[in-house]
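Here is the promised in-class demo. Please do not try to memorize the tokens; focus on the logic of going from shape to residues.
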């Protein structure tokens, strides 16, 4: 399977994340799966005219390829011209290149939240007119349009995240190569369900503290990060805590609150990223599927049943009260 990769308006972090694919790195993972980079702006030897020749031949149909991966948001400004971002050496807007290549691709993948929704590049009031490939924020449309479908019959496959887990990229490409990724395997935002049907909360090492609503007061504490420190893991699609990053890591395991980076609009939270917005002391962003009244009742019950061990450890940077074996009755 031949993959063509374009870098639009982004930081390159999605490529950096992908390089950490486990167990042996992205290139080895692709070789094992029979996936070939036809061209990648950072990993391929061809540059300048040679790179433009590859892209031009792919756009004209003279050279076949299977998957177009786009990293970074698409800049449509000023005034819809795309002139803010031109492909070096071509004089043409990157938006025009992406649209032309998308028309030839068997599948189009947006790699990272910028390519999926516009994300950071589209935040606030700016003149870039940044957008994702088929969404701008949570609104359908984007560069290619709401009803666009690839030659393979799929909408844009959104491997969102800032950055996405390398496993999401590699496993999605593997599924495509085996013909096992259908439209039914994508959620309403075009994310593959094998990871988007989970929550970042699933498998979090802090779940005992969450159960008793034993909350951390600062980032170094062991307690749950939801109540005070802005953690959105109970709302964030992704199996981030079920599969390891770089051996054994995740945001919450490192003491950093989940910012729900796989979802549209994460870049503009109601308050500061590491603070929990509240109304009358109740977090604004509640766990998915949980009514406010239930959350309030559950929180009160959980706190009343909180073991002293959990309460004390939640405000420490290491376990100070270990679990004790219950004496036989």
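The designed amino acids, position by position:
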């Amino acid at each position: 399977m031949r993959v063509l990769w374009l870098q639009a308006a982004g930081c390159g972090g999605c490529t950096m994340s992908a390089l950490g694919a486990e167990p042996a790195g992205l290139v080895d993972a692709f070789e094992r799966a029979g996936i070939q980079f036809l061209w990648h702006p950072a990993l391929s030897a061809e540059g300048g005219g040679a790179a433009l020749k590859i892209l031009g031949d792919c756009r004209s149909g003279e050279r076949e390829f299977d998957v177009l991966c786009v990293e970074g948001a698409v800049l449509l400004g000023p005034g819809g011209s795309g002139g803010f971002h031109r492909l070096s050496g071509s004089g043409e807007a990157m938006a025009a290149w992406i649209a032309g290549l998308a028309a030839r691709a068997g599948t189009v993948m947006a790699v990272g939240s910028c390519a999926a929704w516009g994300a950071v590049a589209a935040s606030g009031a700016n003149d870039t007119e940044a957008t994702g490939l088929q969404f701008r924020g949570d609104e359908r449309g984007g560069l290619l349009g709401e009803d666009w479908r690839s030659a393979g019959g799929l909408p844009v496959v959104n491997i969102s995240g800032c950055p996405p887990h390398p496993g999401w990229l590699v496993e999605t490409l593997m599924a495509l190569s085996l013909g096992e990724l259908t439209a039914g395997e994508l959620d309403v935002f075009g994310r593959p369900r094998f990871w988007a049907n989970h929550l970042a909360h699933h498998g979090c090492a802090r779940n005992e503290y969450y159960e008793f609503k034993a909350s951390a007061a600062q980032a170094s504490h062991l307690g749950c990060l939801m109540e005070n420190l802005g953690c959105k893991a109970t709302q964030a699609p992704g199996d981030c805590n079920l599969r390891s990053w770089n051996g054994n890591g995740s945001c919450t395991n490192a003491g950093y609150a989940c910012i729900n980076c796989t979802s549209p609009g994460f870049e503009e939270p109601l308050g500061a990223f590491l603070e929990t917005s509240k109304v009358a002391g109740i977090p604004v962003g509640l766990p998915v599927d949980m009514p406010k009244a239930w959350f309030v009742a559950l929180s009160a019950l959980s706190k009343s049943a909180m073991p002293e061990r959990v309460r004390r450890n939640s405000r420490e940077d290491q376990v100070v009260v270990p679990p004790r074996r219950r004496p036989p009755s």
